[in-house]
Amino acid sequence: MAETVTFKNMALAKAINESLRRALDTDPKVLVMGEDVGKLGGVFRVTDGLQKDFGESRVIDTPLAESGIVGTAIGLALRGYRPVVEIQFDGFVFPAYDQIVTQLAKMHARSLGKVKLPVVVRIPYGGGIGAVEHHSESPESLFAHVAGLKVVSPSNASDAYWMMQQAIQSDDPVIFFEPKRRYWDKAEVNTEAIPGPLHTARVVREGTDLTLVAYGPMVKLCQEVADAAAEEGRSLEVLDLRSVSPLDFDAIQTSVEKTRRLVVVHEAPVFFGSGAEIAARITERCFYHLEAPVLRVGGYHAPYPPARLEESYLPDLDRVLDAVDRSLAY
Predict the structure, then answer these.
(1) Model-level pTM?
(2) Which residues fall within 8 angstroms of residue 204, CB to CB, at 6 or more apart?
(3) Residue from 108, 134, 135, 289 carrying the catalytic annotation
(4) Which residues form the Transketolase-like pyrimidine-binding domain (predicted)?
């Protein structure tokens, strides 16, 4: 008799909620902390209902003090807990940056491996929702640059569900970037089968002419670009990185050796962004395979603009297609 597989159609935000619920139910050492995560259920309702079901000692409404939230989570992790902390918006993480990079990221090395800090820092990030200042940043490269931190970002509900499970189970701190513009995108989630290791990339569309690499909010855009290119007879491969640190360079290399061209897309500014590291490393690895330089599409090296201008700031279909055209023109 075939095994019964449980599939649920849910939005990305709901998938994270279900994943947190499962972790809280499975492990009494898992805690959820943050501003308004309890009674309100989070500003995006990602933690909706969790405090009601697990109590105020497991799902904790904190003061508005990001440094204190992360510092407290570090102390709890030292005592054997597995805290999952929410930074309400991406731009609010910087008061906690000191705690994250000088304490959370360093403790394992400082103790010669004796101390582990299984802390997950959830950060809704990116633009596309018409928010005010400090609510649409993409600071993932700042954290990827710090040794000792894992940095991941799901692009769909299935990955959101399972990557959160894997992040909570990790003995190393994980910065979990949630693409807020994709919170309401729905997909089928198999709640019984892990789709793959946390830090592996996945080909979401096969192609032969050029590779598009993205993660988080830009994966859907790259799939739309591939659809548009197909109408012109071009076959684009789309690779979802899923993890920014560590990066799955082997998967990128395998794809580029097939297509011989690469365009990297992310919302964060191109200048010193994650695409720069990918471009440099793939140029080293695939120099004799590349038929065009690695191109990057991202935000501009400027403060994030007011909401009425964000569509001009963020990568869109035309800007990515322009990069595809330029690459194929070589």
Answers:
(1) 0.96
(2) 219, 223, 238, 239, 240
(3) 135
(4) 10-185
